[in-house]
């Protein structure tokens, strides 16, 4: 229960006591986080490595140059962050700042005592219901502990820049950074789901993402048409477009809005969301017992399923090649087994009636005609 003593129940939306972030995390995000949490002292090392970027200094900068949300300042936002903490059962209500910036954006900052920052551009763009899902999204980042692991990405990015003058010095680091950026994008998908758990209205959650993509003229937009855009983007064009889509992702910290809306729609229509609303979800108290192997398997299955169902030309080709290779391998195995069967001995020392070998005879005859055993 959040430690704000004035907080109380919020009518109309379900609360999830003791909910674990594993309930809403994308399988790839969840697998990485479970593995990281099992590394004893990992977060302490990161905090020491990031000491040059003081969390206290960053908070002081926002305290001095932005507006802290409270009972007398942006009261409606204050109620939203309290509500988000109540619904997701955070141990404490995070501070929330509004900073002057026309670019719509929001972020969760800090490891010891995380806080949320939203820009004035975002406040002006979204209505109350939409803003609630965004604050829920950032609250999800705090519950998942994403700030600790995003710090690693920041450190490695700086490390790569320091090695930029050394030939081949950054190849391995860039490979790690690329993998971390992929996880970063999946963590955004996770927290879109957290925002939905707070707002509990899929149409509102998708509408907020549409506004971030296209501006405030909501009467000029359609959720159905935007989802059609997402389907067209996924399966668009030929192999050239597939390669261009991959190149466009390089260096991006967030998935494209149409992808996020499509992912959110899929999750809102699925069983996981319904089970959570019904009170069936993993509890925080069980997090230490989460299996790294099982989460890694779930992550692999998620990628396998996405490749199986995608309409993207490149991944479709890779899927077909993999299926073809498996089919060819099966035919080769059958053909090889058939030829072995033709020369196999029958139970009476000759050839069996069907030309096959004895099922339990796996030892080829020696040169002297007798078995080695």
Automatic annotation (TrEMBL):
Signal peptide: none annotated. GO terms for molecular function: metal ion binding; metalloendopeptidase activity. The keyword Transmembrane helix applies. Residues 72-267 form the Peptidase M48 domain. It comes from the Bacteria. GO terms for biological process: proteolysis. Residues 283-306, 332-373 are annotated as: Disordered. Pfam families: Peptidase_M48. Belongs to the peptidase M48 family. This is Peptidase M48. It comes from Embleya scabrispora.
